[in-house]
Amino acid sequence: MRRVLQRQQVKPIYRCRDGSFTEDPGRCTGGAELLLTPEQRLRLSKLMSALLRHIPEEAGLKLDEAGWVGVRELARAIRERWRRKELYWWLRPEHIVAVALLDPRGRFQLDEAGRRIRAAYGHSVRVELDYEPVPWEKLPPVLYHGTVRQRLHSIMRCGLLPMRRIAVHLAADRATAAEVGRRHGTDVVILRVSTECLHRHGLPVRRASSKIFLVDHVPPDCITVED
Length: 227
Known about the structure:
This protein is α+β, with helices and mostly antiparallel strands and 227 residues long. The protein has 2 domains: 2-119, RNA 2'-phosphotransferase, Tpt1/KptA family, N-terminal domain (Arc Repressor Mutant, subunit A); 136-225, ADP-ribosylation fold (Alpha-Beta Barrel), CATH 3.20.170. Helix content is 29%, strand content 21%. It contains 7 helices and 12 strands. It has helices at residues 2-9, 38-53, 71-81, 93-101, 152-158, 174-181, 195-200; strands at residues 13-16, 21-22, 32-36, 69-70, 108-110, 116-119, 142-148, 168-171, 188-194, 206-207, 212-215, 223-225. Strands 2-1-3 form a 3-stranded antiparallel sheet. A 3-stranded antiparallel sheet has the order 4-6-5. It has a 3-stranded antiparallel sheet with strand order 7-9-12. It is globular, with a radius of gyration of 19 Å. 28% of the residues are buried.
């Protein structure tokens, strides 16, 4: 049921005549053509996330030290890896670019030329993300983290730790944190993290996207539980 609901929320992607991509074909001058159905978009986005964050070797990819790989290389690797199942025979670099540009949580980054792509955050493979720390005075006073109640005792004792990821992920808003928390169960708890407290501990915070911030860890005294 949850998977069906997720597919219903994903919108198709259209390509306008000028080569731009949109979820609303009415914004295109001169018409638009369907590029990705909701199901294709969802499936490709999940696969891109898995390959760029966790298992590049599954498609024979080698990320550079900062997590980048060529867009054409990624499209070719996906086509070749799943060729026998005929899942991605249609895949071209423009599909990769469209998914990256229109991702609602900014999970992907393209370089200035649009020729390389990487995951913006969420890595379990070791990469050196080159994000500069955000000056403390420019951070929101509170960031959020979604989890489930059964993990709460451990978190309040040890703080938030990266676990299998290379950093702790904090959300800019409660809704994003809740969405992440629901991946782990239905009894979701929202944690509020004080950025002033992180600053007192000397823990730099880096922005990975418009909605996600990264920190090495979060001490217990920086965390409060939302009622």
